[in-house]
Every structure is written in structure tokens, then in C-alpha cells.
Amino acid sequence: MNTKEIIEKLYKENNATKEELLYLLNNIDDESKDLLIKRAHETRMKHYGNKVYVRGLIELTSYCKKDCMYCGLRKSNKNAKRYRLTKEQVLECVRKGDKLGYKTFVLQGGEDAYFNDERMVDIISSIKKEFPNNAITLSLGERSYESYKKMFDAGADRYLLRHESASKDLYEKIHIKESFEKRRECLKNLKEIGYQTGAGFMVGLPNQTNEDLVNDFLFVKELEPAMCGIGPFIPHKDTPLRDYAHGSVEKTITCLAIVRLLLPKVLLPATTALSSIDKTGRDQGIKAGGNVIMPNLSPMDVRKNYSLYDNKAYILDEDAEYRKMIEEKIKSLGFEIETTRGDNPDFRKEEC
Ligand code: SAH
Ligand code: SF4
Fold it and tell me: Helix 249-262 vs helix 3-13: angle between axes, to the nearest 10 degrees?
């Protein structure tokens, strides 16, 4: 099989073998890349049309008890500026977001014991009380089954927990003393509880091989997450991985397009990390099958302190201005902003 045949198989059958995926990554040239992107775009058009879903990102806390080697919020980073939002601050962000037409709020943060179940349930139910029709996505790392369940029962709809890498060796190199199995167990629990669950991985991690990326493809194909966050690794100056190169935009785009073909209905963000290393990164992501963007809704004064990696695209324009700008930009690419909740079409939401 050649690369074009593998792409056509992916397009028609939404599947490929381990060997085929590896062959594709190892041998892809410009011409096949164009075909891959074209097929990913057609697949997205079939299931979602030209809609791009918007999620308002609220960066809840920069405290973290974990020590992921790549991340600027890791607990050993003494230079990190730490903050926590109050419930009232979160509600202000949410009100601002709703006015801008953002019907999903993503509460993301480090693993911070301050945001225990009681506090999270209070925040989630307060948001749902004011905005019963909006969706809440959480991205707060690994927690117990009971904790995930309590937050779900309080009204959370979705949970983003990237698996980061599906290769045990690589995972354990960048998460010292953390359990590869536990992360996967969390993803299983989230699905079982009923969350629309998001997995995902970084591209271009130090020493990552194409075999590792193929493991990521096979893992997400099997898990069938409702969402999949894929972004380039970007070094942060206050982490042990500071001297490594960032992942390439090109490779990230290739991975996005392959995942669009493997999981035709997945919600696939064109990530902030992608726009942070290339001004056109987000646009390229959208053209290659990406159908979600996540504008920042956090209070302006904390944005710089939620520093996962260097040169993060901190948007410091007025949010309403940014909203207009993004709408025009998306339109100019031939797409349209969609301001409904934007659930995964396969997800059976219980009638209430
Ligand atoms: N603490 C939670 C959520 C916040 S981190 C968690 O870890 O799940 C959100 C995501 O940012 C992580 O899943 C990781 O994939 C990404 N990230 C962190 N540091 C990064 C870096 N240096 N480069 C690229 N992505 C990074
Ligand atoms: Fe904490 Fe998440 Fe960063 Fe890991 S990636 S250090 S869990 S914020």
C-alpha cells in the first residue's frame, strides 16, 4: 500500500492498521498531505458542515500538586505565579461569556486540593442555576470516581482529560512517579459516569517517535472519546524540558487530520498551543478537520499566570472585540461560528 491508498482507506473505512498508520507517518509527502487534509475536511463537512464550535475557557487555578515535566504549572516551579479564582469571579466570566454567545464554559486548572468536591459542586450548581441551558466542561485532572460522579450529578456535562501519551514508557518519562494506568482508569470512569469525555495528546514531545503517535491513534480509536485535544509540545523555560524543541505545526496538523478520519464525529479543537507557535496555526487546524475553538474568558489580570508553556497566545484584547475579530476570521476561511451547546451528535443526552 502507498500513502494515498492508506488515506483513501482511512477516508472510506475510518480505520487503518498499526502498520498502515506507521507507514503513513513515516512516508507522507506534500502531495499526500494535501490529500489527507482534503479528506479530513470533507469528513468534517459531512458530519458538522462548516460550523466551528466555541467554548469559553476559564482558567480556574494555577496551583497544581503534580509535577508533569513539561508544564509551567508543575509544583516544583518556584517561579510560577499562583492564583485561584473565586466563585464570584467564575460567575462573572460565565455571564460575560454567555452574552458573547459562548454556550459552553470550560473550567480548567491544575490539580488543586482547594477545589474539593464541595467547592466544585457549589460552583457547578451556581452556574447551572443561572444558565441551565449552557454546558459545563471540566478539565481538572485526575480525581476519584466519587468526585467525578458528584460533579456530574451537580450538572457538569463534559470532562477533558488528555491521555498525554498512549506509550507507557514515554508517559512515565514525563510523569515521574505517576501511574499510566490510573490516567486511563480515570478516562474509563468519566465515560462510565456519563460525561462526554475528551482524551488527547501532545505532538513532538522529547524523544517521541512515530510509533508513539500511532499508539495514540489506536488508543483514541478504541476509546472513542467525544472530544480529542491535540496540540504541539511547547517547552517552558522553568521546566526540566526547557531545552527541547517544540513540536511542529505540520506534524500536529497531520495528526489532527488523521484523528478526524479515524473518529469522523469527534469534536476536535484547533488548540491555543497551535496558534502559539504559528499565527496561522489555528486556521490550518480548522482547515484540517478541527471544529472547536476555545477563546479565553479568564479575568485579564490572571491570564499571564496560567503559563503552561512559553509564548502562550495570551489574548489581552477586550473579549467583545476578540469575539468580533474571530467571527470575521472564521468567516474569511469559509466557516461559521456556531453558538449552540455543540454536543457530540453520538452522545445520547437524557431528556430532562
Ligand atoms: N491539570 C489538568 C488540566 C490543565 S493542563 C490536566 O493536566 O489534565 C491542560 C493540558 O495542557 C494538558 O493536558 C497538557 O496536554 C497541556 N500542556 C501542558 N503543558 C504543556 C506544554 N508545555 N506544551 C503543550 N501542552 C501542554
Ligand atoms: Fe498540573 Fe495539568 Fe500542568 Fe500536569 S499538566 S502540572 S496536572 S496543570
Answer: 40
The protein residue with its alpha carbon nearest to ligand 1, atom 16, reads 308
- DSSP symbol at 84: B
Q: Stretch 90-104: mean pLDDT, rounded? A: 96
Question: How does pLDDT run across 241-278, given as a tens digit for each residue?
Answer: 999 999 999 999 999 999 999 999 999 999 989 999 99
- For residues 146 and 138, give the distance between their C-alpha atoms in angstroms, rounded to a whole number: 15
CA atoms within 13 A on the CB side of 83: 19
Whose alpha carbon is nearest atom 8 of ligand 1? Answer: 141
- Find the residues whose C-beta lies inside 6 A of ligand 1: 70-71, 108, 110-111, 139, 141, 161-162, 164, 202, 231, 233-234, 236, 273, 308-309
| Alpha carbon of 23 to ligand 1 centroid (Å) | 29
Q: Which domains does the chain have, with CATH numbers?
A: 14-336 (3.20.20.70)
Q: Tally Cβ neighbours within 10 Å of residue 38.
A: 15
